[in-house]
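Quick one:
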Amino acid sequence: MEVAVDEEGVRCENAECRVAIDRKCVEGIPEPASCTHYGKSVVVVQHAKPAATPTEPSGVRLSSAEALSMAEAQVLMRQRAANVIGIVGPQDAGKTSLIAGIYDLFQRNKVGGFAFAGSNTLYAFERACHDSRRESGNRHAGMERTGKGAATFLHLDLANDVSREKRAILFANRAGEDYTDAKSETTLATGFYEIRRADTLTMLVDGERLLDLRLRQQVRDDILVTLRALLEGGATLRTQRVAVVLTKVDAVRAADEAPRTRAETFFLSIVKDAKQQFGGDFLEIQSFEIAASPKGGATPRGEGMEKVLRYWMTQPGRDIPQRIPLVKQAGGRVFGRLTRVQPKAQNG
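Output:
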């Protein structure tokens, strides 16, 4: 605040008082000196300046490279041909390891006849892979768990090594607990938009749990009851294919002969039951065995994942719908950019 004092020294703290000019009190007090405001400095209140309107930063706006929301994934699917992969499995079944393992393999070489051609979610991939790398400082390899909530999508552009066709693949990423909850409340499946949009459903069978006689029936339940819940909840389509994938196959092979044989046989029985119960509800059901992030050196990293990738990518998917082509604006006046339409000829 600033203090204003008139030159003659006659003053009033009321800014509207003219006592300094005509010696009359604005309040009508005969003797201004008896006024409680007389003789005090005028107080001038300075109002705060309005906050400056933020301006848009100049330059090129780059993608965050984080996982895509459903809306962002839909924009991408309108721009290019894409295959959507729904991956379903309970916690620790190896879903994140599978997604991150595919990304890791492409950093080394081509995979299953496909070459890496770009990604809008590199940061999300790198964060998912971090805990399995030496730089993390972890004694044992691990992967970041998916939090509960809306599904997100990780994106890769892949180029076919033969046809040179480029096609996107989107991995739907949702917490396994969400799918588990749908087993007891099928209405939850109606909110799994990533499942209904998927071209291939990938059901994960935890190989380590199959080695445990106390847990393997629960593994069967995770696959068959979850598929039933998705079907009854209206989240699936007959045009979809199903891949039943045995994960952590390195752990199965490292076990003694008897438990290894039991685990392998039990996995085949799960696939057989899935085909018998749901063969008419999907285009086809196939089985695969993978070791996305094996422990020890007995099993190569990413074993079996090439076959899974080829299965995902040979699925026709849903191509780009026909779109109205965009017309690039030329320079000059707006009026000059209008398209001239020739009038129709008059009959007669």
